[in-house]
Amino acid sequence: MDDWREINAEWLQDTAFVASNAAGGCVQMGSMDGQPALSPMELLLASLAGCTGSDVASILQKARQPLQAFQVRVRGKRRQEHPRIYTQIEVEYLLWGSGLDLQTVERAIQLSREKYCSVSAMLEPATNIEFTYRVLPPEAAG
What we know:
It is a single chain. The protein has helices at residues 40-62, 102-116, 118-123, and strands at residues 7-13, 16-21, 26-29, 69-78, 86-96, 128-136. It is an alpha+beta fold. The protein is globular and about 50 Å long. Helix content is 31%, strand content 33%. β1 (7-13) and β2 form a beta hairpin. α1 packs across α2 (102-116). The protein contains three helices and six strands. Strands 1-2-3 form a three-stranded antiparallel beta sheet, with no helix packed on it. The chain folds into two domains: 1-37, no CATH class; 40-140, GMP Synthetase, Chain A, domain 3 (2-Layer Sandwich), CATH 3.30.300.
């Protein structure tokens, strides 16, 4: 069975587009009148962060882990020549919670990376992705 997804990207001006899906979700990308926005390549990193982050959060919640706050930071290094693809990506999970089980956290990250995250599965054949995590005390959550 085919599972097609569709995005419509409408040009606004300059290099700015607004992308929308059938459900009405939308995101602006590119530059317009000097206003800051995410570039398409930054949106790719954001997609990776959201994909793996939702996997890890869901797995930890199902495992009844006391997760109080959670961030996923993603950095990508692009090559200089065109097309300027990412050659290396670093994913860092920051987790806050009292009594988080490290083995459960590691397993959640592994499952996201190896089984569930479609974005990393698309990127990894061509890009080296490094995954790290830090568990921080709950009082440090902001």
